Amino acid sequence: MDATQNVTLQGLLSGQQALPRPLYGRARSLPNQVIAYRHSHPWVQLSYALHGVVEVETDRGRFIAPPQRAIWVPAHIEHKVRCTADTRVRSLYVDPAVVPWGAAHCRVLVVDTLLRELIRRFSQLPVFYDEASSEGRLAGVLLDQLESAPEADLMLPFPQDARLKKICSHLQEDPCSRIALRQWSSRLSVSEKTLSRLFVQQTGLSFRLWRQRLRLLSALPLLERGDRVTDVALACGYDSLSAFIAAFRQQFGATPGEFFADVIDDQAATT
Predict the structure, then answer these.
(1) Which residues of 77-106 are buried (b: 16+ CB within 10 A; e: fewer)?
(2) Are 213 and 156 a contacting pair, CB within 8 Å?
(3) Going by C-beta distance under 8 Å and a sequence separation of 6 or more, which residues neighbour residue 31?
(4) Residues 224-249: tens digit of each pLDDT
(5) Which residue from 2, 52, 185, 196 has the least number of CB within 10 angstroms?
(6) What separation in angstroms does the CA of 192 have from each of 27, 169, 180, 200, 203?
(7) Which pTM value belongs to this model?
(8) How far is CA 135 from the centre of its chain?
(9) 130: Cα within 13 Å, side-chain hemisphere
């Protein structure tokens, strides 16, 4: 990293309100990529993991991106970021003015081969690349591909009700917890019917489906690092491997082996 690049990075970290270019990418992510406390910034951030799993948490929910996925964080949205060990990230920072089509909420995007290579190439450009040259045209193509990238259903919605928050907080700390909703009803002095209704109203999911999604999303970092599928199934609260694989296929449209085989092939092609 040259002196100009270092000054630019330091300026961004110290609260600079403008990016050096409308689209700015770095192979070495800014340190706020792994800030585990709530923060926001005046630009859009796209975090893409070449290896490992990136997770962003907002008031709205948890967004999880294994390889071949990226998380779009709009400007001024307070969020926390966590990464698994040895995560390798490529980050893009975007002036909101050049992405009027951008969603106003966090989302997970599918990164196909073309978009992946565009992100990798763009992150190697100089900080002050020539916007009137092929480098500027590359930025335009990259923005076009981001606009058309499909959204992946890798988000766990959060409720706002204080009682549901207690339930969800417990389950996130212990995804394999088997405490039933009727037991929570007794603990929280509220009817099971009320809790069930609130879950659907505030998350769009029943209690059972919310817990299942939590378990499956919690399985992704374990599977990505190479843990045995049987061990992951047990760690995430499933009694049998077949039940876990069936639930995984229903949620992600592929078995764990199929889902991560594509990731392995993709990574092998870029090494």
Answers:
(1) bebebbbbeebebbbbbbbeebbeebeeeb
(2) yes
(3) 13
(4) 989 999 999 999 999 999 999 999 99
(5) 2
(6) 49, 18, 10, 13, 16
(7) 0.86
(8) 28
(9) 3
